[in-house]
Amino acid sequence: MTKGLIGKKIGMTQIFDEAGKVVPVTVVEAGPCVVTQLKTAENDGYSAVQLGFGDVSPKHVNKPMTGHFKKNDLPFKRTLKEFRLDNAEIKVGDILKADVFAAGDIVDVSGTSKGKGFQGAIKRHNQHRLKMTHGAGPVHREAGSMGACSSPSRIFKGKGMAGHMGAEKVTVQNLVIVKIDTENNLIAIKGAVPGPKGGVVTITDAVKKA
Fold this sequence. Notes:
This protein is mostly beta strands. It has three helices and twelve strands. It has helices spanning about 40-45, 65-70, 120-125; strands at about 5-15, 20-30, 35-40, 50-55, 75-85, 95, 105-110, 115-120, 165, 170-180, 185-190, 200-205. It is globular, with a radius of gyration of 23 Å.
């Protein structure tokens, strides 16, 4: 991995390409990100770059993180994430902006999906409802039979049932960067990315380039 940034999802819009076709894009405010720490194989057992994004008031930062920022005289950041970047030319305190990417790059975008709360099996797992006649009911949107009772006398692990839906890490792979606004640190990515407006996302090089 050679590129990575933390950003904030602004929302979706559409732009026109050179051929005049409409391209749906998600606008992400990517950076500026501050390099807050360098992990090395000698000290930490692996190499990585820790980036900070989003300003935060010092009164909202606990004592361990306050010392972490003050150690290198860095600004306080709300979000910290690690990237397995090539840190040969990166130093603590460097600022990475949207211009680390370019239009046409293929990236993976990760974020926390929208929380849906407690949902039934139909919405959560796309299961079919029960028959509306022949004695089914009175609830027709329940999961139905869970399996045989005598054998195996249990529900197999992984059975699709009602429960908490959403609010989990989701990665969308092989998205194309359509346009970059370097002055405002905005990146227009073709298609949709996980999370609500204002949600924190990470943009990295695609690991499975098509």
